[in-house]
Amino acid sequence: MKRNLWHQRLLLSSLLFPLVLNAPLSQVAAQESVTDPVVETTASQLEETVTPTETPSSEVVQAEDQPLAPFTKADYETSSATQMAQAIRQGRVTSEQLVNWAFEEIEAKDGELNAMISTRKEAALKEARELEDQGQPFYGVPLLLKGLGHTIKGGDNTNGLTYMEGTQSRSDSRITKDLKKAGFIVVGQTNYPELGLKNISDSKLYGRSANGLDPQYAAGGSSGGSAAGIAAHYAPVASGSDAGGSIRIPASWNGLIGYKPSRGVLDQNPDRPNLQVVHFPLTKNMTDMVGLFDFFGGSAYPEIPFDPKNIKIAYSTQSPVNTDVSPEAQEAVHQMVAYLKGLGFSLEEVAAPIDGVSLMHDYYTLAAASGSFANFLSQQKRKQAIQFDEVDPTTWVLYQYSQHLDKKDSELAWQRIHEQAEKMKQFRQNYPLYLTPSTAFLAPKLEDPLLTADHLQQIKESHLLDKEALAQLVYDQWLTALRYTPFTQLANLTGEPAISLPTYQAEDGRTLGVQFQAGLKQDRLLLAVGQLLEQAGQFYYQKPSVSAPSTPEDQSEEAGQDSIDESMESENPSPAPVDDESDHEEAAGQDSNPDHSTSLEATETDSADKDLVSNDSSEATASDPSDHQSQTKPLKSKTLLPETGEAPINGFWPAMMLGWVFVLWPSKIRGRK
């Protein structure tokens, strides 16, 4: 037994070594300073040595003299976007057929899920028929587009506000253009909470989104409709935005992969010190995730060789705001700790050195600009201030709080945030990776209130409170929701990358992810961890049973040994294995709720929409491993990147500028109550 474990650790160390290199998957690591042949192996080469346990029916190796099997509706539900693009090129299916299947799923299920706020069937079918193959990595694949901040011409552009109903975008946002360049066909827009402010998707305008795995539970937010749509097989990929967890929270609750890129690594997420909102799609497998990362600029990021024996992982199940953490969330982390220790990693239980309560107070101070922005849109649209009954209570209390804030409050909040970010930078010298639950609890019931009756009454009367009392009310009213999701906001405020991986499923079928967070611009390390765990069969849908789970110790040895045995026995190499606002983003918002995607995400408006000042606010059922896991090596086609030379406009700054302008302007302009 000891000898087998020794061999396991030795082999996985040699496999992981190249995997964690910060290198594009399409390149061979050949740095002059590295002479060890193992180190010179890249992640893509590793993928060719590690074969997943099962192969989707659509990817069965065919003899050269036999025709390829047709690509079926069942394949559509279980295949990755990468596989779908390959099937189109092989002539096994057409893009038009894939789009028709997408709408079959939407029409059959969305009456219950409410994941979509608009669809564009005829336009999508026309685009699918006319799309030319120019080497796009996701050629002809259906895509869901987040309805907040990710605009498409003719689509809804309301920020989820009732008084903006009927407002349409007059052009595509930048992320929409980029996703189309990648080959995707947009089939519709997905649901989100008002201004992206909450960790559930339940606006007054669009209603509540249900979980794609079990509709009696919440989808999460603010990219809730996107996550539910992928989980329910509407499409394999959906766009999202994240200012405090809006990608990772719904990914955790819908059994998906949710990745929040580093500030400044990808084209649409600029390197600005006060930027917290990022844009990136959600996926159900690592192949698509890595392919999207490369497409959006990650392929140009420099390689960083290092020895995985030096990777020390800190982990914690302690809430940074001192709220309780469920047994399921703790178990998810402890299972992962045991598994990683079984592979030879060094792990230490130590919480991040930050003051979570102070951090969230500053977070909400910044989020107050969302309230001002909502009032600004109302003044522009109909020449009157917002009213309590027509907006979400969260929007209302932020509006009232914003009346007491000025530029100095924002500057001081960021100063304190940067001080805590510096502590995390020092923390990274000892712990390159930080492991926590993605969410502290499983998804709540769809009807569960995340605001108490007492807080609702206080919010209704919040115009009577002074600045200090309002600051405390903003924090307190969010605490019920923040209790579910206290782990995600740190990465947005520090700018660090984080990824939620679907490793845990409770006995009732609900899923919960574990979150890995790395140092600034160490995104390749996070992607490598995701690939390692997927290839080792550690995602929840790859495990044999949730009703009678093995112990963490058994799992760490058995799953690791299985993945090694399979990689040694297999003769068939495994296949190697995004989003900013529009070019004319206008406005505002910030993730400020436990999901904390506030109007920071409400940030995108095409130029033609500016005359309305209506911005686009900016964010599976899988029992079969093939449902989430891609087996197909992507075509080595030319990467189509956005034109360079102009710094992309991100939604956070326009949002904050507009919000704070109305904080600072005279009270009669702001519509002071």
UniProtKB/TrEMBL annotation:
Residues 544-647 are annotated as: Disordered. Residues 554-569 have a biased composition (Acidic residues). Transmembrane segments: none annotated. InterPro entries: Amidase_CS, Amidase_dom, AS_sf, FAAH2. GO terms for cellular component: endomembrane system. It comes from Facklamia hominis CCUG 36813. This is Amidase domain-containing protein. Residues 98-527 form the Amidase domain.
